[in-house]
Design a protein that fits this description.
single chain, alpha+beta, Arc Repressor Mutant, subunit A, three-stranded mixed beta sheet, 5 helices, 39% helix, 14% strand
Length: 132
């Protein structure tokens, strides 16, 4: 791959995500980055998010029928995705890396990694459902 030219906008997006734990959507990234770079376009944000994801510098988290969310933490960790409000949060839990051994028992190729997401209702949506 050719050397990528430095982009102040791309660097701002990457730094913005690195300092967050809330897994923002592209729209949220755009709104926040626009405060420091008023001339940035939504298309530029989307292109840079796609490029950073492709380069492995951020993670894209698909929530199914909701908007994609983005994570600046590329370490191995797991997410909870609310099926109602589509909020994404990190799960602080014991390692489940043994799943790799289980998968290798049933696959003759080479497994290099895994992604695990958990789905259900977040605390806020659970409370809302109980109140209705």
């Amino acid at each position: 791959m050719a050397t990528l030219k430095y982009s102040r906008q791309r660097e701002s997006i990457k730094n913005f995500l690195a300092g967050r734990k809330d897994h923002p959507t592209a729209e949220t990234v755009y709104t926040c980055i626009r405060e420091e770079q008023p001339r940035i376009s939504l298309g530029t944000v989307y292109r840079n998010l796609a490029l950073l994801t492709e380069l492995g510098e951020i993670k894209k988290i698909s929530t199914g029928d909701g908007p994609d969310h983005f994570d600046g933490d590329i370490s191995q960790h797991h997410h909870f995705i609310c099926r109602s409000c589509h909020q994404v949060s990190d799960l602080d839990m014991k390692s489940i890396d043994s799943i790799m051994d289980t998968a290798k028992e049933h696959f003759s190729g080479e497994i290099e990694g895994y992604v695990t997401n958990f789905y259900g209702l977040c605390e806020n949506c659970t409370k809302k459902n109980k109140n209705t």
